[in-house]
Amino acid sequence: MKHLNVYIIALIAVCVSASCRKDLPEINDPANTISGNFSEVFDSYWNGMNNNYVFWDIDTTDWDRVYKQYKPLFAKLNLNDSTDVRKGYTYFKEMTAGLVDSHYDLTFKDAWLADSFSINPAYQRKVASPDYHDPISIFHFYNDVPRGYLDAGAVRGFTNVGTTAQYVAVSGTINQDILYFFFSGFNLKTLYNTDTANGVKTVEQYFFDKLKNTANIKGVIIDVRGNGGGDLADLNFLLGRMIDKQLDFGYTRSKQGNGRLDYSPWAPAFVTPQAGARNITAPIVMLADAWSVSMAEMTTMAVKSLPNGHFVGERTWGANGPLTSNIYYNGGQFSTDYINLVYTSSLMLKYRDGKIYEGVGFPPDVEVKYDAASLETGRDKQLEAAIGLIR
């Protein structure tokens, strides 16, 4: 999903000498292709996926079979016929339906497809699943949680970034000794370091002050339900304030060359303490659900790696692979002269237990399912379970 951008920085040791683009042979850049017909459109896309996609060793899609099946079908299409263009769109949707990468999103430059949705296999699978539910309304977090669960003096705010992005945050105490923090997207460090005041920055400052100055903290609840992800810099910025030593939570690897299975070695993924951090030994509980994506999942994994870390809620979305521009790695997102963007993970993430949760989601240790009827009345059983675990 295009709004799930995750920017890789040096917080995770993934750019080792074996994986940096400058030390590797150049890939055949699909963006440099010129397609005069649908057969060439297919070839540039297929080759781009063959070289850039990082999940081939765990993906069940037979990419060679895709070539044999769809190459002849595309060869029959006419780029200058709107009906054929829409048929090609259908073929792209069929080819990608089983891809395990849950960030995966495909958009096109063709004007005849301007009214078509992007192709997002994980979203289509989510909607079709028997346990599907809509995201919890942002107004539940903004209105119901402060009114029903937080002490007087709780703060809330929102910030608009450009014309398309809005970030919402809420923080307060529960019975004066449990600290609660909800935020709708990972842009915390950027919004906090702005020169001007904004609603999210005000909430962050409240949370950080309470984290530092509350003498008898009984627990911390970090609520990322419905959180679509964002900036990886927030991992250190947020969790680094609660630890006093490096927190190892998994491993990452990238593509190393043009070969489909040409991977770099696994490199450790970790969080580092920040200056002035307070080591929190009380329970830290992540609240996450089926709409917690990308950085929301990685943060949940990191907290769960703590001896005092817990995860309450539902299995997460399943898009754990970090993303960045493919100028840094021989893999990840790319474009062609026909495709606007193949939005796909740059790295594969393996949790500390040795398992890869891409496409399946990270499971809670205390499962509390979505309850629409309770939420309609303002009651939040998932939040109550987190409070109960701390108590």
From TrEMBL:
Q: Which UniProt keywords apply?
A: Cytoplasm, Hydrolase, Protease, Serine protease
Per the record, its GO cellular-component terms are: cytoplasm
Pfam families cross-referenced by the UniProt entry = Peptidase_S41, Tricorn_C1
Instruction: Tell me the GO molecular function terms.
Output: serine-type peptidase activity
Top-rank taxon of the source lineage equals Bacteria
Answer whether the UniProt record assigns the keyword Hydrolase to this protein: yes
Q: What is this protein called?
A: Peptidase family S41
Source organism: Chitinophaga ginsengisegetis
